[in-house]
Amino acid sequence: MLSVKHISKRYGAQPVLRGIELAVAAGEFISLLGPSGCGKTTLLRILCGIETPDTGSILLQGQDITRQPASQRRFGVVFQSYALFPNLTVAQNVSYGLQDLGRRERAARALEMLALVGLAEQAHKYPAQLSGGQQQRVALARALAPRPRLLLLDEPLSALDAQVRAGLRSEIRRLQKQLGITTLMVTHDQDEALSMSDRVVLMHQGQVEQQGSPQALYARPASPFAAGFVGKMNLLPALVVAGGRARVGAQELACDTHGFKTGSPVLLGLRPEAIALRPLPSTFPAQAQPNCLPAEVLDTVFLGPCTLVRLRCEALGAEHVLEAELPTARDAQLPAWLQGGAGRPAQVLLEIPREALHALAQPLSMRAEPATVFSQAVPA
């Protein structure tokens, strides 16, 4: 339905978008995900006609709309700030863009859209009389009222508190599926992108870093940036020593090294929830399985559904810290073997499934000192 071809944009000497290519299918929900300054909002502004690209083209169902004014594109846009008219009622706000209809048709369409977002009974009120979540629903109803060809959402939930945000995620997704409207959403929140989208387009420094289904981005990140931005991941500098084996510090680990030659420096990505912890046996064999290692518990952090456990594994490097996540028990208490005693940290058995270690190309900046061993748990 929509084709973005080699879109570039600069502000002065600063490149903001660098040759963006994107194809959007009819009825698809796509999230443009990335940190502040990656160019995702600029791309959205170019799509809706507020900004003009320096190079490239935008095709809507085969028609070039690159230079077409925003008013002629028939796109619905929902902004972070709601952008409602404070002096108009809710119904008047929703019907504002329906000037080509008669008065009765406008009123009927406004009530239809308000009913769709669950606010029909609020039609007579003014925006100031509504909560933030209700105002955003009104903004969504207003964007949908003219039956737009494309719906663009510019961080629509970022101004709301966590509980309201979670509820509106599912509401927006339900409406999008019900109406079958093609939707692009800009967000820096990975939870929003993963939970709402058919496809996530991860952007970094004005380029598309990786795109695919939420499951694919989470399970198979294509770069250290993707691994760190989508979810949390331990990143372990390693050296491929043979097919299916890599060395971290002095320890060899069984892992998938497909695509990397022997001697290649890599980063082994490991999701915290993939790590299994067990009580350390009283006698631990010197020649144990390569991915089963003794470790020391540094601290634990209760997070509700799970408990974060920070670990040091001497076999992988003295300064190395791993993060693991364990599901919270029914009584929300840690097992005794994880708590230690008498002022001494708990000793546990660390199990790393071979299939959980994901090899990534190591950045050039990390290869200057190949003997250095460290890991980091990259924040979401």
Automatic annotation (TrEMBL):
<dbReference type="InterPro" id="IPR017871">
    <property type="entry name" value="ABC_transporter-like_CS"/>
</dbReference>
<keyword id="KW-0472">Membrane</keyword>
<dbReference type="GO" id="GO:0005524">
    <property type="term" value="F:ATP binding"/>
</dbReference>
<dbReference type="InterPro" id="IPR013611">
    <property type="entry name" value="Transp-assoc_OB_typ2"/>
</dbReference>
<keyword id="KW-0067">ATP-binding</keyword>
<dbReference type="InterPro" id="IPR027417">
    <property type="entry name" value="P-loop_NTPase"/>
</dbReference>
<dbReference type="GO" id="GO:0043190">
    <property type="term" value="C:ATP-binding cassette (ABC) transporter complex"/>
</dbReference>
<keyword id="KW-0547">Nucleotide-binding</keyword>
<dbReference type="GO" id="GO:0015697">
    <property type="term" value="P:quaternary ammonium group transport"/>
</dbReference>
<feature type="domain" description="ABC transporter">
    <location>
        <begin position="2"/>
        <end position="230"/>
    </location>
</feature>
<protein>
    <submittedName>
        <fullName>Iron(III) transport system ATP-binding protein</fullName>
    </submittedName>
</protein>
<dbReference type="GO" id="GO:0016887">
    <property type="term" value="F:ATP hydrolysis activity"/>
</dbReference>
<keyword id="KW-0813">Transport</keyword>
<keyword id="KW-1003">Cell membrane</keyword>
<dbReference type="Pfam" id="PF08402">
    <property type="entry name" value="TOBE_2"/>
</dbReference>
<dbReference type="Pfam" id="PF00005">
    <property type="entry name" value="ABC_tran"/>
</dbReference>
<dbReference type="InterPro" id="IPR050093">
    <property type="entry name" value="ABC_SmlMolc_Importer"/>
</dbReference>
<dbReference type="InterPro" id="IPR008995">
    <property type="entry name" value="Mo/tungstate-bd_C_term_dom"/>
</dbReference>
<dbReference type="InterPro" id="IPR003439">
    <property type="entry name" value="ABC_transporter-like_ATP-bd"/>
</dbReference>
<dbReference type="InterPro" id="IPR003593">
    <property type="entry name" value="AAA+_ATPase"/>
</dbReference>
<dbReference type="GO" id="GO:0022857">
    <property type="term" value="F:transmembrane transporter activity"/>
</dbReference>
